Amino acid sequence: MDNFKAGKPAVITLGTNLLLVPGGKLNTPLGVEQNIKSKRMIRITRIISILLLITLSPTRGGCQTAKSKGSEMRPGTSSEIRLDTVTLFDQKRKREIPIAIFRSKHKASGKQALVIFSHGYGENKPGAYLMYRYLTDFLALKGYFVVSIQHELPTDSLIPSQGVPQIVRRPFWDRGADNILFVIEWLKKSHPELDFNNIALVGHSNGADMTALFPQKYPGIVRKIITLDNRRMALPRTSNPKVYSLRSSDQPADSGVLPTVEEQQRFGMTIIKLPATKHNDMIDFGTEAQHKEINDYVLRFLR
Questions:
Q1: Is pLDDT of 14 > 90?
Q2: What is the CA radius of gyration of the chain?
Q3: N or C: which end of the chain has fewer CB within 10 A?
């Protein structure tokens, strides 16, 4: 599957602020007998609905930073990480682009290398860009300026499940590549101190397809791309940017997506299979051991 679905609900703590979505309504199940047991279930349903409606509510129009209420960290993340959420607005495309910026609270020495992360397909649910804290926090602690992009909005159409993926899904990948370019251009203005000669793209699943497409659509901008299980969009056969890919044990790529052994040698591409890691383990739902292996490889590629 190209989208990630967890077997249990994910609890996401968003570091800057937590707001109730404006206009949120609770739905009471129909046909429930009004007895003590059903009333208790209705109350539980309402509580769960409220929890699901709690999310960041970024301001429309322009590039604005979400108001901060201090650093709220979820279990397993580092208190030394600063997380800022920003909603950009691409006037040309009339599109909001929510992003999360991860950086160490310690002052960086010299220019920081930039890592832009693209999440896997989340069926347009908000918060997908914060589902990889094991990796984004880790890289921030290692001194990288990490930006994670929320590529999907609730108003977007869903990715087609029928048809040739390389055809019917291409507009979604194009939109993702355009999002990445817009974010890079915004960062050049808002954070000119960053090292824009040292940009790396990292993505998982559908976000990895966007990552694979970007240097083919916009050549000469990024130095490296690292894909976590892109399955549909072919990796660029090139030595510039450098291309790396980590592969899961359970989700094969379509024909032609991955380079042959001869192509890997010719272009210096690195393809590594993780025998103990499944596709969905590459999200925060994986084990500590799986995440450590991914982190170690990604850091090695970046260096």
A1: no
A2: 20
A3: C
Res. 72: pLDDT tops 90: no
The domains of the chain are located at 56-302
Which of these, 294, 280, 169, lies nearest to 244 by C-alpha position? Answer: 294
Residues 93 and 178: beta-carbon distance below 8 Å: yes
- Residue 157 to residue 217: CA distance in whole angstroms: 23
Q: How far apart are the C-alpha atoms of 108 and 25, rounded to whole Å?
A: 44
Q: What kind of architecture, by CATH, is found in domain 56-302?
A: 3-Layer(aba) Sandwich (3.40)
pLDDT value at residue 12:
32
d(CA 148, CA 202): 9
Amino acid at 226: I
125 contacts 153 by C-beta, under 8 angstroms: no
Q: Residues 59-68: what's their mean pLDDT?
A: 35
The pLDDT value recorded for residue 77 is 58
Instruction: Return the C-alpha torsion angle 221, 243, 245, 166, nearest 10.
Output: 70
Joined tokens for residue 131: 């589902």
Largest CA distance in the chain: 71
Q: Could you tell me if 221 and 198 are in contact, meaning their C-beta atoms sit under 8 angstroms apart? A: no
For 87-137, what is each residue's pLDDT tens digit? 999 999 999 999 999 999 988 888 999 999 999 999 999 999 999 999 999
- Quick: pLDDT tens for 228-253: 999 999 999 999 999 999 999 999 99
Q: In whole angstroms, give the CA distance from residue 52 to residue 75.
A: 19
β-pair partners for 3: 121
* Conformational region of residue 13, where left means phi above 0, alpha means psi within -120 to 50, and beta covers everything else: beta
CA separation for the pair 69, 289 (Å, rounded): 33
Strand 19-20 to strand 54-55: parallel, antiparallel, or no bridges (unpaired)? antiparallel
Q: Which of 294, 298, 238, 299 lies closest to 263, judged by CA?
A: 238
If one counts every other C-beta atom within 10 angstroms of the C-beta of residue 114, the result is 24
Token digits for 171?
Answer: 């507009």
